[in-house]
Amino acid sequence: MFLRPNQNKIFIRKHLSVEKLATLSNRLSTFRSDSGLFTVDTMVGAVLVGISGALTLSLINNANDGMFNMNLHSKAGLAKAARMEEIREEAFKLHCTSGCSDGSIDTNLDYDKSEIEDHCSNQTLGLALLERLQNKNPDLASDFDLQNYDPTSPSLPIFSNITANGNSLIVTLSSDAAKTPMTSTIVPNALGWCK
């Protein structure tokens, strides 16, 4: 039998007294707490909150690691580029007799042309540059650390592989942080040598 809303109120007033409603309410609350419905709901909610919190912390941790690695990769790339430029400067100074002092470069440059011609004809200009690096500035021809160029960075070894190839020098700089090595072919040609 279905009762309309107003009839429900009348039915409740006629058939249930205040004492009966209080007893029924106590029984319902006792039933709910005794059956553990509130405890299960609370536990499920706590587990869901815990899982979402753990996943959020994991995402934040992964993002921080990614940013740290990207920053380290960028700093390693800048250090490699700086080292390449220092080696190119030595290539420019190869067989310079005046105007290429260690501190500056003058506009009146002069080179030992006979030495250059000998190396060009024998395809040994790259070897001459490698020997200059090893003898005059051995640090440029060896492995180095990122902290040599950025003292605030963590220690990161950068490996140098320098080989002479005819009249050029092949320089490869690599590190564990950057999986892609930086390679450059350096040709000493301040005056358009080896024509």
What does this 3D model show about the protein?
- With 195 residues, the protein is of the alpha+beta class.
- It is built from five helices and six strands.
- The protein has helices at residues 5-15, 18-35, 37-93, 113-122, 125-136, and strands spanning 96-98, 110-111, 144-145, 157-165, 168-175, 182-186.
- The strands form two sheets. A four-stranded antiparallel beta sheet has the order 3-4-5-6. The chain has a two-stranded antiparallel ribbon with strand order 1-2.
- The model has no long low-confidence stretch (mean pLDDT 80).
In short, what is this structure?
With 195 residues, the chain is α+β, with helices and mostly antiparallel strands. The chain contains five helices and six strands.
Q: Count the strands?
A: 6
Largest sheet: 4 strands, antiparallel
Question: Hey, roughly how much beta strand do the residues contain?
Answer: 5-15%
What is the element string, with H for helices and E for strands? HHHEEHHEEEE
What is the radius of gyration computed over CA atoms, rounded to a whole number of angstroms?
A: 40 Å
The overall pLDDT, averaged over residues, is: 80
Helix content: 55-70%
User: What is the CA–CA distance across the termini?
Assistant: 110 Å
Unreliable sequence segments:
none
Name the structural class: alpha+beta
Assembly context of the chains = single chain
* Count of discrete alpha- or pi-helical segments spanning 4 or more residues: 5
Shape: rod-shaped
